[in-house]
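tool_call: predict_structure(chain=1)
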Amino acid sequence: MPASVGRGDLTSGSDRLDSVEIKVTFSGAGAAAATWALAPDTGGARRRVYFCEALARSTAPGHLPLLDAGLILRLRAGSGRGGAATAELRPCRRSRLSERWLRFREQGPDSFHLAGAWSGDRRVLSAALVSDCGRTAVEAAVAGEPLDLVFSDHQRAFLADCADIDVGFGSLDVLGPVDTVRWHGVRLDHHEVTVERCALAADPALEWLEVSERVAPEGAEVVQASLTALVQGKGLEPDLGRGVRVRRVLEALAAEGA
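tool_result:
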């Protein structure tokens, strides 16, 4: 088996879709109300999330070169030893993914996931390659160590093959953190969801709550309608699309670093 292809590489991936991730997001006062109504009172895993952007290549206010090219680079450090680097194409055009990556599943610390990302009426394809690199590596990158040491060989090859932009790890800025608390396996009626509360240290007014559910592609429309009706039945109204939230966060972080 070639080293460059992960487990599950013996079948074609041209029709592959691993799952659909459904998200409903609340911001501002809506986030506070949704937290009170939906989040457990105790527990939750605390994490710090950072984003990488090419601010030096910005050509106008609000221009985020990587995000505008459909590329999101994230670093996550948990409260323990856990840490991960994620290279995500969103929205991703399936035509950009070669058979090599459509067949990649998991190899060593790296795993590839191809999913529908649904938030309200917005439905896009997400291709994410995650590397479990550990908290120490993430903290080193945040402190200024070269980013190509935290993103894996597979991730760099994936971006070189499939991204619409030359990443140029040596010139990227690390932005953040975003502080999060995440609860897994929360039961909401017949749904089992992940609830995550996020706050921006750079802008205390910018906080949001995400409720997400990852389901099989078949029947995802029914699940989305049911989950949306469930939160609306509690008097809550989602007000942020996933793409809107990421842009708003990156704009705030970029402004802080300017």
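agent: The two ends are 47 Å apart (CA to CA). Proceeding to next step.
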